[in-house]
Structures are given as C-alpha cells and as structure tokens.
C-alpha cells in the first residue's frame, strides 16, 4: 500500500514530465501515418497549443519549437524560420518599453493616477471609477501588467486608510456608499459574526460587538475590521483595477500584445493591406473601451454594493468621515509627489510627441506627415517613431550641467521592464503562422470550416469571438491570438468575407480574459492582495466577458463598417 502511495505521489510530482512526453507520442500518427506537410504542420501546431495551454514548458521555449521542427519536417528552412522571430513588432515594442521605463522611473504614472482620482471624488463608487479610469488610461500606453503594478499599491493604501478609519472608531450618520458605519470588528468578532449569521434575527452585514477593550488589544496584530460591506468594497475595487487594465489596453495598437501581433500578422500575410494604423484603431477601439469601462463599473457596483444607484445624483453634499479619510490619504499621496519635476516634464513631452506622431502619420481622412517622404511610401511605420523617441530617452540628460551626466533611462532600467518573454512568444507565433501558410494547413482548415459560410456573417463572427474568449481564459492572450489568426484568416477568405471583419473582433476578444487569476498577469497581481476569491473573479468575470463581446460586436457592425470598409471584399485579400 505504501509503495502504491509512493508511486502515485511520484507520478503526480512528475506530471509535467509525463505530459511533455505523452503529448508528442499521442500526436505522432499525424506525421508518421498521414505524413503530408499539412499533417506535419498540424503536429507542430497542436503540440505548441498543448504546451502553451498547460505551460509545462516555459512559454518562450515552446515558441522555439518551430525553429526545431519545421526544418526537421522540411516545411521551412532554418534560415527562413529565424527571420520570423524578429519583426517590425519588436521595434515597436522596444520603443514603447523605453517610454514606459521613463514613465515608471520618474513617477509620472502616480501623478496621473492620483490626479484622475481626485477629480472624480472619494465616494466608493466614484473612487472605483476614478481608479479604473486611471488604470485604463495608463494601460493604453504601457503593458497591462505594469499598469496594475503601478496603480494597485495606491489603491491598497486608500483601502487600508478607510478600514483604519473604522478601526479607530469613526462613525457617520448615514452613508449608503461606503457603509462602514458598524461598530468596531476585530479578528475574534468576525468569528462571532459568522456564527450569528446562522440566526435569522441577526442582520447579515452586522458585526456584533462582544469584546472588551482589553480583549481587542489581544486580537490578531494589524488585523483590520472587515464587515461584509468592507469586503465588498475591497473586492469591487480590486476587480475593477484588474479588468480596467485589459479594457484600456485594447484601445491602442501598442496597448496590449494581441493588438501588436494582429498588426504584424496583417503586414506579413497581407503586405498590400494598409488599413490598420494607430489613428483608425483608436477611433474604433476607444469607444469600445469607454463603453466597457462604464458598464463594467456599473456591473461591479451592482454585484458587490447592490442596486442603490442614488449616488449618481448625489455628487455634492457633506462628506462622511470615511470619505474624508479616503480623500485625505489621496491628497497626501498627491502632495508627497511635490511639483512636477523636469524629468516628468520631459517624459510627458516625449509621450505626447509619440502619440501625436502616431495619430498624424497616416490618419486616412487627410495626408499625414508620412506623405513628406513620397518616394518612401510604406517605409516608415509606428515602430520607426517609437524607436526614434525611445532612443532619445537614452540620450536626453536627466539633470542639468551642475550634476554628472545621466540619461533619462539606462540600459539596466530598460532591461528590467523589457518583456523578452513576449518578444520570443510573438516570434514563435509568426513562425507558426508562416509554417501553416507554407505547408497548406491554413488552406485545409479554411476548406474544413467553409460550411460556416452558410451562417449569417454576424453569427460566424459571434461564434469565433465566443470560442476565442473561452480559450483565452486558459491560455495566454498572446498564445491564443497566435493560434487563431492563421485559422480565422483563411476562413474569412473561404467564405468571401473581409478578413478584418473576422480578425478585428477576435483579436479584441483575446484580451477578455477576466475569469480566473491565472488567465493573465493583472488578474494574478490583484488576486495576490488577498481581497478576492476565485469565485468572486468568476462571477464578476462572466458579466464582463458578456459586456466585452457585445460591445465589440456592436462596434464592428456599426462605426467599424465605414471605417475599414468591412462590407466589401478587398483586393489585398
């Protein structure tokens, strides 16, 4: 019996090795029995998808498999595969990370976030909207993970200040927003409250006072009071930050990796397609982000605070002590930043210059500054702008001549933020996409899915969005979009639909991974603060997923149609 238990434990401990070995063995009939180029490429695709979803091998190393297997199967030469691993996308990523490094190093993100919060007020609902707006705005320009890492410490400080105010005995007359007006509740009292909830005569969100002052001192050190409404506020605030980072990231092309992967995929597969640029992507996706942000805010408020929306008409009036405590900590945080430093000013100027040059390079409705180079049409991209301004940050002095020369950012600063994992993962995706094209697998899959063409176009798009949204909960966003782009693109061609009509909404839905802590790094960071459970995230995430899919379908069937001529089949396809 002990031997069996030991064997079982050993197998469980080495389950990753078992999956690494079993997955290729189970897929071996594809290259050995069928033996066509399509089957060999399918072997690589399914093996990579399995490893990406289970993460038994680090994601970047799984992305290296095409460099090994495609030359082995004779699909693509090794020298040609290597070219797929560094594209225009990587230059854009380097430039954006240079800017993000400067923003984080000099604290510009904190100033922006705190300023936005002070503008909307300190009532819990408005406070949540303020933090969500700040996080969404920051994630438009830096990685979603970085945006959450920047904002969450400020959110936690505000939450702890509010809870501490109650711990010190602050009581207000009537505060339907915060509802932190019950008597003091320490660690031991929470256990009593939990037992009292079984009795119908005790209100569910009341913490009963049973301790003497001496007993309170003996309570768990540093434990802050947590009545039900306290917990609801913490849950709503934390989930709002996690979700707003993904919602804001979809607004701009460099905001999140799936957008960049999609853009580079278009350049690679449809070189004559010049439809996607920073400006028109912003026009399409910014309204989606705004709609999603507002509806997510209302959804989280309803889910955790209830259906009392009177606060929408009560912006003014006298503040409770809890709201005053929240405002105090935010104002103190903002004052501690002092006046705007010269480094922050330089960073802000570079940031605004980068955005302005992106917007005006080739806006579509008028000639952009790229037309000043008529003999080099298509040579200059958003990556050129990002890389130029990123390089300047390594040159511009951070201080005046009175101090030793130091650039705005150093290589060590940059390297600490540069997501090399994403760079390799995206490169592997490009190599995989090229392999499916060269082997004919993408064409075979498109023919297989041709019956979907009998459905209305909107139904086909909706099905694709739902499938992608489901898969991205269990696989990384970048891996998901990398797997589906080579499949959905030929599908659109097979049913004679503008590929953008299918690819744009599915690309956006790849970022809608709201259900689980493991779905994406922002979720994991917020979950690590300990305010929410997995079920909290699942319940809230289901609603946000529905909001996201519906908002995306609304966009591509209304203002997206004239913006990208989605109702016509383009020549470049």
Automatic annotation (TrEMBL):
UniProt-annotated location(s): Membrane
Pfam families the record matches: Na_sulph_symp
Keywords: Ion transport, Membrane, Sodium, Sodium transport, Transmembrane, Transmembrane helix, Transport
One GO cellular component, as annotated: plasma membrane
Topology versus the membrane: Multi-pass membrane protein
GO molecular function, one term: sodium:sulfate symporter activity
Membrane-spanning segments: 51-73, 85-103, 123-142, 236-261, 281-305, 337-359, 379-396, 417-435, 455-488, 540-564
Heme in keyword set: no
PANTHER family listed in its UniProt record: SOLUTE CARRIER FAMILY 13 MEMBER, SOLUTE CARRIER FAMILY 13 MEMBER 1
Family of this protein: Belongs to the SLC13A/DASS transporter (TC 2.A.47) family. NADC subfamily.
Protein name according to UniProt: Solute carrier family 13 member 1
Species this protein is from: Perca flavescens
């Amino acid at each position: 019996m002990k031997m069996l238990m030991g064997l079982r434990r050993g197998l469980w401990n080495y389950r990753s090795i078992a999956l690494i070995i079993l997955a290729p063995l189970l897929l071996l009939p594809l290259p050995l029995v069928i033996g066509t180029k399509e089957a060999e490429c399918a072997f690589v695709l399914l093996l990579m998808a399995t490893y990406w979803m289970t993460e038994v091998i680090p994601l970047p190393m799984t992305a290296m498999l095409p460099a090994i297997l495609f030359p082995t199967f004779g699909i693509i030469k090794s020298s040609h595969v290597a070219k797929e691993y560094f594209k225009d996308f990587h230059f854009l990523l380097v430039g954006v990370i240079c800017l993000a490094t400067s923003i984080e190093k000099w604290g510009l993100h904190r100033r922006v976030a705190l300023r936005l919060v002070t503008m909307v007020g300190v009532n819990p609902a408005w406070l949540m909207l303020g933090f969500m707006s700040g996080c969404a705005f920051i994630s438009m320009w830096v990685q979603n993970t970085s945006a959450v890492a920047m904002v969450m410490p400020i959110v936690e400080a505000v939450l702890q200040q509010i809870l501490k105010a109650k711990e010190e005995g602050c009581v207000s007359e009537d505060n339907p927003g915060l509802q932190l007006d019950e008597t003091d509740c320490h660690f031991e009292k929470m256990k009593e409250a939990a037992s009292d909830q079984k009795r119908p005569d005790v209100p569910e969100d009341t913490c009963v006072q049973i301790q003497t002052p001496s007993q309170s001192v003996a309570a768990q050190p540093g434990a802050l009071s947590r009545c039900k409404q306290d917990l609801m506020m913490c849950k709503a605030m934390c989930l709002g930050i996690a979700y707003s980072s993904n919602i804001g990231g979809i607004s701009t092309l460099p905001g999140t990796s799936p957008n960049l992967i999609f853009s580079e995929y278009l350049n690679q597969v449809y070189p004559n397609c010049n439809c996607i640029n920073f400006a028109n992507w912003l026009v399409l996706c910014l309204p989606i982000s705004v709609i999603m942000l507002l509806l997510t805010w209302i959804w989280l408020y309803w889910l955790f605070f209830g259906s009392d929306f009177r606060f929408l008409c009560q912006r003014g009036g006298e503040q409770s002590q809890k709201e005053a405590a929240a405002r105090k900590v935010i104002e103190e945080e903002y004052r501690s930043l002092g006046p705007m430093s010269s480094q922050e000013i330089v960073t802000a100027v570079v940031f605004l210059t980068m955005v302005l040059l992106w917007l005006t390079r080739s806006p579509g409705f008028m000639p952009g500054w790229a037309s000043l180079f008529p003999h080099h049409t298509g040579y200059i991209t958003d990556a050129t702008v990002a890389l130029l301004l990123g390089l300047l940050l390594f040159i511009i002095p951070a201080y005046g001549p009175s101090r030793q020369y130091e650039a705005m950012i150093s290589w060590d600063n940059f390297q600490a933020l540069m997501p090399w994992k994403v760079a390799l993962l995206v490169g592997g995706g490009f190599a995989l996409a090229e392999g499916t094209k060269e082997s004919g697998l993408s064409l075979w899959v498109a023919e297989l899915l041709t019956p979907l063409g009998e459905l209305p176009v909107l139904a086909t798009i909706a099905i694709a969005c739902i499938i992608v949204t489901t898969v991205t909960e269990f696989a990384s966003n970048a891996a998901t979009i990398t797997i589906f782009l080579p499949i959905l693109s030929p599908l659109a061609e097979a049913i004679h639909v503008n590929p953008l009509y299918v690819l744009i909404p599915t690309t956006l839905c790849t970022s809608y991974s709201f259900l689980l802590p493991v779905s994406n790094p922002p979720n994991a960071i917020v979950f690590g603060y300990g305010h929410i459970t997995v079920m909290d995230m699942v319940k809230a995430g289901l609603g946000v997923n529905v909001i996201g899919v519906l908002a995306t379908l609304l966009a591509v069937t209304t203002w997206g149609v004239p913006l990208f001529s989605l109702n016509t089949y383009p020549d470049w396809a």
